[in-house]
């Protein structure tokens, strides 16, 4: 009896409420009961979890879609794109200009949603199911599908969701602005692509090789257009010596020659825009035939 009395004195527990027990002045929280589909909270938690997955997917897709758009490309689309492209580019340019602020805002929103998911999923499932659902949901619906869609239609989706992005920038400004300024100081503000002459020549070549019809959005350059543009890019470094032709290789016509069929065929075959005309000897050039 003395042993039992001592045990009673040692342990004195009292139920405070449904989830709290106080033993010898120490408060213990009981494990929360898992919700099932009969409970109203089950569907509320499930709806919140689904919403978080959707928002995380939007943030992931917008991060990939908006930040993959180069400022140079957007400026080109704004000036020379189709009517829709001009409209979309005008909306997106102010966002992409603040590259690091946009990046930090979208990543913070995505991280917040991903970190909040287990809070709601743990109440409606066991740990194994929670891990499987979280991994598959985040990977497929929060990363793969949104990024695949936004990389393909990033311009249109980014323009349509620009009000949401502005709202998030305002909501997370206190955190995202200092981080973006730090990134600006470390990495710089400019993220615009600038093409050198050699790169422009390759770009022109690639646009001359594009396959497709104008109805499909492709408008390839002809061979002549490619040669003219590349020649204009090389003009800065060309001299008269590079363009000249030795006198003994010139195709010339005698002032007394007849413009018969044979002569005309020679002119067409040579393909020159101007043909020298000489009188007597080839050193006595008196004019040009245009």
Main β-sheet, spatial strand arrangement: 1-2-3
The average pLDDT score comes to: 80
Give the percentage of residues in beta strands: 5-15%
Q: How far apart are the first and last residues' alpha carbons, in Å?
A: 129 Å
As a percent range, the share of helical residues equals: 55-70%
Oligomer class: single chain
Cα-atom radius of gyration: 37 Å
Structure commentary:
The protein is mainly alpha-helical. It has helices spanning 2-10, 40-67, 71-80, 83-97, 99-121, 127-152, 154-160, 162-171, 173-187, 197-208, 223-234, 240-243, 261-270; strands at 13-17, 20-23, 26-29, 253-254, 275-278, 285-289. It is 62% helix and 8% strand. The strands form two sheets. It has a three-stranded antiparallel β-sheet, with no helix packed on it. A three-stranded mixed β-sheet has the order 4-5-6, with no helix packed on it. The longest helix has 28 residues, at 40-67.
List key phrases describing it.
290 residues, mainly alpha, 4 domains, 3-stranded antiparallel β-sheet, rod-shaped, transmembrane helix, ACDP
Condensed summary:
This protein is mainly alpha-helical and 290 residues long. It has 13 helices and six strands. The chain has four domains: 1-31, no CATH class; 40-187, no CATH class; 197-237; 245-289, CBS domain Like.
List strands and helices in order, with pairings.
Layout (H helix, E strand, L loop, with lengths): L1 H9 L2 E5 L2 E4 L2 E4 L10 H28 L3 H10 L2 H15 L1 H23 L5 H26 L1 H7 L1 H10 L1 H15 L9 H12 L14 H12 L5 H4 L9 E2 L6 H10 L4 E4 L6 E5 L1
Parallel strand pairs: 4-5
Antiparallel strand pairs: 1-2, 2-3, 5-6
